Amino acid sequence: MQTRKVLHYDAFSSIPNKGNPAGIVLEADDLSVDSMQRIAKTVGFNETVFVLKSDIADYKLRYFTPGHEINLCGHATVGSMYCLKSLGLIGETRNNITIETNVGVLPIRFEQRHDELFVTMKQDQPMFASFNGSVKKLAASLGISEQDIDDSLPIVYGNTGTWTLLVPVKEVESFSRMKPHNYQFPDILIEQPKTSVHPFTLKAFDNKAMMHARHFSSPFSGTVEDAVTGTASGVMGAYYLTYLDHKAEQIEFIVEQGLEIEKDGRVYVNVNRTESGMDVYISGTGVYVKEMDVSFE
Asked: Domains in the chain, start-ordered, CATH in brackets?
């Protein structure tokens, strides 16, 4: 049996035990993939991130759910970068670095906003794919009715590093009624059975926010709900420019998430059209919670 130190940081909030928890393992180069997976399963958070050396960037990050590795995770990136910067492992004058991920090398920017450290990460080029499954069964799997779904907007799979199903909902009040039956997702998501589900609405409780959302995990991930999602929030910016406003060159807004599970957090989204596609950025702050000693075989 081995023991490894795991740091618990919350992303997208400055209040401990709000936002989205991430397990962070520093100097993880000596760990095998199996060991990383065992640690992530023991920690039990939606994602645990392992920080490694890189030959092509400042750091390499690998992300694991309790069930499997994923290519990119927004909140674990923000949490780990906030951790490195606040611990002084990234120099005080260095405000721009790069990270190596399974989707390529991505830029990271640090800045102070209202006396708080914010981390901005660029995500992968957005992709969308059609959903052709049963809307009635999809709604039922979320614990709501088909009438709660906003049929004026498309249900699509979206990806800025990780695929998720984007489900437009009419009213923000519907989200408190949602009780996901995650085990049903694979049979409904006929095109991508291992995908998570991201219901959202263009309304919010916070008058500074433009969207409200929840995020329900694939049953293969070993978790039920992701409190505040970075990659899904980023792809929502690309969704807006693709399906809601074809002419706008840029969109910037705040997503509120986590209220229904007492993990209230905020994701700042900025998306710009380019000649080759879209540049998608998300920003957020973080907070240290505690240190854990995790034992694994």
From this structure: 2-121+284-296 (3.10.310.10), 127-282 (3.10.310.10)
